[in-house]
Amino acid sequence: MLRKLKYMIVSREQNAGRYHNIKTDNSSFERVEQFKYLGTTLTQQNSIQEEIKIRWKSGNACYHSVQNLLSSSLLSKNKKPKKYRNIILPVAVYRCEIWSLALRDERRLRVFENRVLRRIFGPKREWRKLHNEELHDLYSSLKIIRVIKSRIMG
Hints:
single chain, two-stranded antiparallel ribbon, 6 helices, 46% helix, elongated
């Protein structure tokens, strides 16, 4: 049985492990800069930027899969935020317990959440975009950053 053997050196230094080649009698190991392990993308610099990008892309895909339900007039306005909280948010914050958020990561996640909430609640009567304060009034549950921080601490 032929197995793919790969390895990765995790370091904050850019040149870490650049010249390491690992060979045994019958096998050679391929050096990689990132790989997926248990659903999480691990990188050589131990950066979570790529993982956060993957998570909000997955959250977007999840939103698009339930978009017809969320834009339906058959679903009451107070049920729509619950659908976001129970369906889309868990996908977007999956494995967030291992994240250490920088301010730019928090900003990107807030932008993702506001974009999805704007789509759920739709425009105001004047057909203008909802302002962040109006979104927060409509969606009174924990915001995405608080959810992540509570999971990291918990």
